[in-house]
Amino acid sequence: MGIDMGERMRTAKVERNTRETKISLELNLDGQGTGDISTGIGFFDHMLEGFARHGFFDMKVRIDGDLQVDGHHSVEDCGIVLGQAIREAVGDKKGMKRFGQCILPMDETLVLCAVDLGGRPWLNFDAAFTAERVGYLDTELVHEFFYAVSYNAGMNLHIKVLDGQNNHHIIEAMFKAFARALDEATGMDERLTDVLSTKGTLA
Q1: Which residue in 130, 124, 138, 79 sits closest to 109, CA to CA?
Q2: d(CA 50, CA 125)
Q3: Across all residues in the chain, what is the average pLDDT?
Q4: Does pLDDT of 3 surpass 60?
Q5: Which residues of 54-63 are buried (b: 16+ CB within 10 A; e: fewer)?
Q6: What are phi and psi of 7, to 5 degrees?
Q7: Nearest 5°: CA angle at 79, between 143 and 196?
Q8: Which pLDDT does position 92 carry in this prediction?
Q9: How far is C-alpha 21 from the geometric centre of its chain's CA atoms?
């Protein structure tokens, strides 16, 4: 018998309060794709809403950050909190597929994303932007966000832009591909009675 999904809710609520940001994030891995997002950065809101929708995650995010400085602390700290929430929500990972992947097209753009929730963090981020900013989001912060997510979730994360010209499309495809890959990786497999590892543990 596989793991009974009814055993527990795969949810998390994480708060982070510093002199730079105040963040509250709620995550349900087994949701309907509802995003309730307010970060103070419109384009970043749009990316997180897309992440929730395309991963079928229910997510609520509230950020009060020092945007009078710039968006760095808000975006990076959001990545920290989201990574912590993912780590908490997956729990002991019994019955979970662990690996996920997606190659996502968006107009002229093609982005690859692969995820391993095996407990060892790593980010391989292969992308080049031709604009310093999309909306009010500095493009260099996209790397900082995914780095923070991967290291706080204990996630091996690869994101590679295979093709693309429009910076908006490239970033949006990254968030959507990540959502699809994470949805697959956090999915349950009824054939699994324990964790998917020959070591017997994912830590």
Answers
A1: 130
A2: 20
A3: 92
A4: no
A5: bbbbbbbbeb
A6: -65, -40
A7: 95
A8: 85
A9: 19
